[in-house]
Amino acid sequence: MKKSKAWFFCAIVATTLAVSLMSWSASSAREDNEDNKNLPPRAISVAPEYTGVVVPEGEDVSIDLMVRNGGRQDELVHLELTSVPKGWKAQIKTYSFEVTGVHVKSDSSKNLTLKAEPEEDLGPGDYVFSVKGQTQDGALVSTSDVTISVIKEEEKKKPKGVVITTSYPVLRGPTDAKFEFSVQVENKLDEDTIFNLIAEGPSNWEINFKPSWEDKYFSSLRVKGNLSESMAVEVKPHALAEPGAYPIKVKVKSETAEAEAELRVVLTGTYKLDVGTPTGLLSLNAYQGKESRLSFYVKNSGSATQNNVRFLSFKPENWKVTFEPEKIETLQPGEVKQVEGLITPAEQALVGDYAVSLSVEGEKQTKDMELRVTVKASTAWGWIGIGIIVLVIAGLVTLFVRMGRR
């Protein structure tokens, strides 16, 4: 008897796990299908991480090469070097072998390496390598170039006195963000040195030097001999700056040494949405089980394009709220679009005021609109009530007439 119960319990647990796994798999498949709908049917790109590098004579070059599949189907991409300058040996490879083709899944990428080796007598100059990627059926082709500039050994800029380095020289974000670069200043002199700090950037931008993790600014930095100090460069763009890439030059200078580094801020614009009704009223009359329509507008008040703007609602139980259209694919800066909200109270809703919240979700911006919905009794019930009152009055009159006759 005990064994039967144990087997029964194990069967229940196994069944539950199997059902949960199947549900999770189905949910994941639905999410993957939904994401794939936003991709083009087919798209590939073959691009190097760096399109131009400078190296001294006799040095080998290895550059990351990314093969990207941005389409909805998996692709077999054939790779070849269509142009290799004279005096060089080059190949596309992984860690251990040469690659002539790669399988790339939908909405993913593969990283390879472009390896170039110069001959011993190769002189200074600019050398262009051409890379071509093509799908197996030849329908899609992507090409890119890499320029290797070879210079004489003595032309290399040797660090003298001080060196500036940063791990992340390019930062990207919205116009109203604050950007902070982490910079390392290395003093190669044998003595402690005070370096003046200078920044050059676009007009009306705020650029300040500060300690890492502290909110105070300074204009000079003391670095001990043969040691290094870290600092932060805080950049606040002008509020009206257009989307784009902006260079920031940072200099450290003393009487005996100086160095310069270039940082870059890439602005994507500001993300801002406005939502409202044409009349400014945020109230609506509705009837039990009847659909009521509310027109409202959505405006892109920022400088960046808003993609895939969705609508959500927070409503009383058993109410129904839908939108026409269901979402806005693209909303350009300054563009306004009208949306219809269809609100249906529950059949059992009591007469009175209810709160319904409409939410508009864009990229990095969400805007809510609170509505007051007044549910009124159906006019049909009003006429039914009047009919009942008329019947009651008629009955009373008839009764009084009969009583009067007696």
Please provide a written account of the structure.
- The protein has 406 residues and is α+β, with helices and mostly antiparallel strands.
- The protein has three domains: 44-155, Immunoglobulins (Immunoglobulin-like, Sandwich), CATH 2.60.40; 162-267, Immunoglobulins (Immunoglobulin-like), CATH 2.60.40.10; 273-380, Sandwich (Immunoglobulin-like), CATH 2.60.40.10.
- The chain is 15% helix and 50% strand.
- It is built from two helices and 27 strands.
- The protein has helices spanning 2-36, 379-405; strands at 44-48, 52-56, 61-69, 75-83, 88-93, 101-104, 108-118, 125-135, 141-151, 162-165, 170-173, 179-187, 193-200, 206-210, 220-223, 228-236, 244-253, 258-267, 273-276, 283-287, 292-300, 306-314, 320-324, 327-331, 336-344, 352-362, 365-376.
- A five-stranded mixed beta sheet has the order 2-9-8-4-6, with no helix packed on it.
- It is elongated.
- The model is unreliable at 155-159 (pLDDT under 50).
Could you give a short description of this structure?
The protein has helices at 2-36, 379-405, and strands at 44-48, 52-56, 61-69, 75-83, 88-93, 101-104, 108-118, 125-135, 141-151, 162-165, 170-173, 179-187, 193-200, 206-210, 220-223, 228-236, 244-253, 258-267, 273-276, 283-287, 292-300, 306-314, 320-324, 327-331, 336-344, 352-362, 365-376. By secondary structure, the protein is α+β, with helices and mostly antiparallel strands.
Main beta-sheet strand count, sense and barrel state: 5 strands, mixed
Distance between the termini: 86 Å
SSE arrangement, N to C: HEEEEEEEEEEEEEEEEEEEEEEEEEEEH
CATH architecture of the largest domain: Sandwich
Instruction: Identify the CATH homologous superfamily of the largest domain.
Output: Immunoglobulins
Q: What's the number of structural domains? A: 3
Total strands: the figure is 27
What is the 3D form? elongated
Which fold does the CATH topology of the largest domain refer to?
Immunoglobulin-like
